[in-house]
Amino acid sequence: MEGVSYQRFPRVKIRELKDDYAKFELGDTDASMANALRRVMIAEVPTIAIDLVEIEVNSSVLNDEFIAHRLGLIPLTSEKAMSMRFSRDCDACDGDGQCEYCSVEFHLRAKCMGDQTLDVTSKDLISSDHNVVPVDLADSYAYDSSDQQRGIIIVKLRRGQELRLRAIARKGIGKDHAKWSPAATVTFMYEPEIHINEDLMETLTLAERQAWVESSPTKVFDLDEATGQLKGCLLLQEVVVVDHEAYTYDEEVIKKAEAMGKPGLVEIYGKEDSFIFTVESTGAIKASQMVLNAIEVLKQKLDAVRLSEDTVEADDQFGELGAHMRGG
Amino acid sequence: MGKQSMGNIAYNELCRMDTLLYLLVYPQRPLLTTRTIELVGYDKLGAGQNATVAVMSYSGYDIEDAIVMNKSSLDRGFGRCIVMKKYSAINQKYENNTSDRILRPDRTGPAAERMQILDNDGIAAPGEIIRPNDIYINKESPIETRGTMVSSTGQSDSKYRPTRQTYKGPEGETCVVDRVALCSDKNNSLCIKFLIRHTRRPEVGDKFSSRHGQKGVCGTIIQQEDFPFSERGICPDLIMNPHGFPSRMTVGKMIELLGGKAGVSCGRFHYGSAFGEPSGHADKVETISETLVRHGFSYSGKDLIYSGISGCPLQAYIFMGPIYYQKLKHMVLDKMHARGSGPRVMLTRQPTEGRARNGGLRVGEMERDCLIAYGASMLIFERLMISSDPFEVQVLAHACYKGLYHLLHCTLQDNIYLVPQVCRVCGLLGYYNHKLKAGICSTCKNGDNISTMKLPYACKLLIQIWEAFLLYL
Ligand SMILES: [Zn+2]
Ligand SMILES: [Zn+2]
Question: What domain of life does the native source organism fall in (chain B) (predicted)?
Fold first, then answer.
């Protein structure tokens, strides 16, 4: 691998961090890196989800497949997913996917005895492993943890109806089924850079400035009260950028400026090497952990490419990419 | 909503025994309604789902009204449907006082494997997974059904033959016996009805439609990470090609998108009617646009979207928002069909027609025209004769011909099948005389000018029909 090195040293600045939410800046890198991180978070960070359901009794209104599908989509706490085995390459159970190394067993027993309808929720799922339990949304939000928020509803039972089942949860990735994706939202935007042409802005009247500021659907610009008062004249209130990130690249302000006969009033670019990420987790893993796991998965994928020195093996696995990586 | 869409059909939909019932797993109420829909109560029974639609081109699998679907949306239940089909069996009574009987299944014999889903009463149990060739009722019928009266009980086993009913469903799919109902029919004999349930997720080729008659099949299914996304994190459920708009002029669909988008942002169901502005039962596009702007969207309903593959922003702003989409009951699983060799029609000896009869795919007139234009005469010959109904007249019937010779010689231009000595006297079909071991022409009363040839059986049939009313070729 000779030639120019394109290595860059990305920088991360965390803006906001909650259990299920993270907002950070990723700078000094390219869209390819940012997008790779996003794609891995959606599709390749492993979590645990219910994969097999054995129904013993189901006299509810929903049919078996319906309930199985709903169970699969319940997020389970998956801190241990990274170190867990995929059931397809588990030696302990020969790919059966039922052993303690690659699966977690759940039981659900519910029967409605009273006249009121009984809500069967994710809280009724009894786990064999206290590390893998249905995500409790009430913990992360300040819901009053009375019966108001009692987990995710699976089915409602009427008097005499019963649901009894055994479920097996396994490790998986979002590429195989969306139930294994830890990401509720992963998105990024290019950080906008806004330059107001002050000289041209001076030529606008207050009403024109007001109209121009209001032409943006999001609150990006505002009239600065302070400067207006300082100069003792309302006419001279300056237009300032209050929140450049609120800009959605809609170009409404640029069109407005052109319509007003003042093209070039403002110039807006997207910075090509700075990305603002918004990451929301389903609760399976913490949002911050999701980013770290994504970087880990990405590293493993790159290692796999680098380690495949054997040409045949590399070409088998990566095709043309393998040859490219070896500098061919 | 229409006759073809899936959804809730009635409040008693799960207590019915329809021959065919299509239900949606997660039906929704449309975000954009009209006053009429409310008055009629159409929104009380969902007939589709509010899909986030991006109007853009993607991947090339979206040509000719095809739509591109998001795999994660399908995983989460979008477009999932339940198909219930009724199968029935009658415990028939016969005139000699005998009747069919239902037997306890054979748990060890050769048919045991196919009888696994049966209860001890010989009838399939609800909740069991049923596979093709499984027996769902272990029935036997008496061999003798007419004649002298027999006492209804005490017939020996040898007087019955098995008339088990086997399930013929799609291969490789998991269908479930949903319900079994026992009742008596109009002749007062026992009637057993089975409702077989099949839950399906959308696949390539399934048909979807918006409420504006914009129907299209699913062209491809793409992973969520490859799908475009907005900086708010919105990722469409499906992508529709913009070429669907100019010629159809479905302005209502665009208004639905805008109204739906405003509806989800402000939390109020909007009206999509084009009429009735003074009564307040319609939302004007201007007011919808104002709502959109108030919630930080562009007034036009277009968003800046990033490519999921490269991470770069797309060159154009994309018209994106929710549109109520219906799943129509035409699904590939029910229509998919191909065959190699198979059954033939008795009369013409040509392959049968239609999927139900495992029929062949017809090379019709227009296809034939294409092949003629292309000059692929050997291919026409193969399709119309070799792969269809070749008939070796050299074995079964001999033709002595004049007109026939010219007819076939000109079309086939193939001397391999034409032995040179031909009867140029009468031009009729002959026959093979096994005693003389020679072909005979029954008109000329000799076998001098007989030759053998190969022709489609249907052609031989036509010639003979004509001969029957004295029209000689
Ligand atoms: Zn295992
Ligand atoms: Zn003759």
Answer: Eukaryota
Average pLDDT of span B131-157: 81
Read off the pLDDT of each residue in B289-307 and give the average, rounded to a whole number. Answer: 90
Out of A223, A238, A264, a domain closes at A264
The pLDDT score that the predictor gives to residue A127 is: 92
**pTM, rounded to two decimals:** 0.84
Are B305 and A189 a contacting pair, CB within 8 Å?
Answer: no
Quickly name the fold that domain B337-388 has: DCoH-like (3.90.1800)
Q: May I ask the CATH class of domain B391-468? A: alpha beta
Give phi and psi for B127, each to the nearest 5: 95, -10
Query: Which comes out higher in pLDDT, residue A262 or B167?
Result: B167
Same domain, A204 and A245: yes
Check whether residue A82 and residue A204 sit in a common domain. Answer: no
In a 3-state reduction of DSSP, which class is residue A38? Answer: helix
* CB-facing half-sphere around the CA of B315: CA atoms within 13 A: 1
Instruction: Name the burial class of residue B295, with classes exposed (0-12), middle (13-18) and buried (19+) by CB atoms within 10 angstroms of its CB.
Output: middle
Question: Is A179 near chain B, with CB under 8 Å?
Answer: yes
Return the top range by mean pLDDT from A137-146, A252-261, B147-156: A252-261
B245, containing H or E segment: helix B244-248
Q: Quick check: A145 pLDDT over 60? A: no
Best B15, B72, B319 residue to mutate vs chain A (most A CBs within 10 Å): B72
Dump pLDDT digits (tens) for B355-389: 889 899 989 899 999 999 999 989 998 888 888 88
pLDDT, position B203:
94
CA distance A288 to A299: 17
> Is residue B65 annotated as a catalytic residue, yes or no?
yes
In the sheet that A126-127 helps form, which strands lie side by side, from edge to edge? A47-58, A162-172, A103-111, A126-127
Identify whether A247 is part of a domain: yes
- Label residues B182-214 b or e (16+ Cβ within 10 Å = b): eeeeeeeebbbbbbbbbbbbbeeebbbbbbbeb
Domain B81-200: CATH architecture, name and number where available: Beta Barrel (2.40)
A43, A217, A270 ranked by CB distance to B298: nearest? A217
Q: Is A175 on the interface with B (CB under 8 A)?
A: yes
Asked whether residue A189 is assigned to any structural domain, the reply reads no
**pLDDT tens track for B76-104:** 999 999 999 999 999 988 888 888 888 88
Contact between A175 and B303 using a beta-carbon 8 Å cutoff: no
In a domain, A127, yes or no: yes
- What are phi and psi for residue B404, nearest 5 degrees? -60, -40
Question: Cα of B440 to ligand 2 centre, how many Å?
Answer: 8
Q: What is the CATH number of the domain that holds A59?
A: 2.170.120.12
Q: Would you say residue B423 has pLDDT above 60?
A: no
Give the mean pLDDT of chain B. 85
Domain total of chain A: 2
Within 8 A of A39 by CB-CB distance, chain B residues are 225, 308
Question: Which helix (DSSP H) or strand (DSSP E) does residue A314 occupy?
Answer: helix A311-318
Tell me, yes or no, whether A58 and A119 share the same domain. yes
Q: Which ipTM score applies to this complex? A: 0.84
DSSP string, B140-171: EEES--SSS---SS---GGGEEE--EE----T
Instruction: Name the fold adopted by B29-39+48-71+206-327.
Output: 2.40.270
Owning domain of residue A79: 47-180
Smallest Cβ–Cβ distance between B296 and the set A39, A65, A217 belongs to A217
| Domain annotation covers residue A273 | no
> What are the tens digits of pLDDT across the range B313-336?
999 999 999 999 999 999 999 899
Q: Comparing C-alpha atoms, which of B143, B157, B159, B141 is closest to residue B102? A: B141
Q: Which one of B18, B62, B65, B185 is the catalytic residue?
A: B65
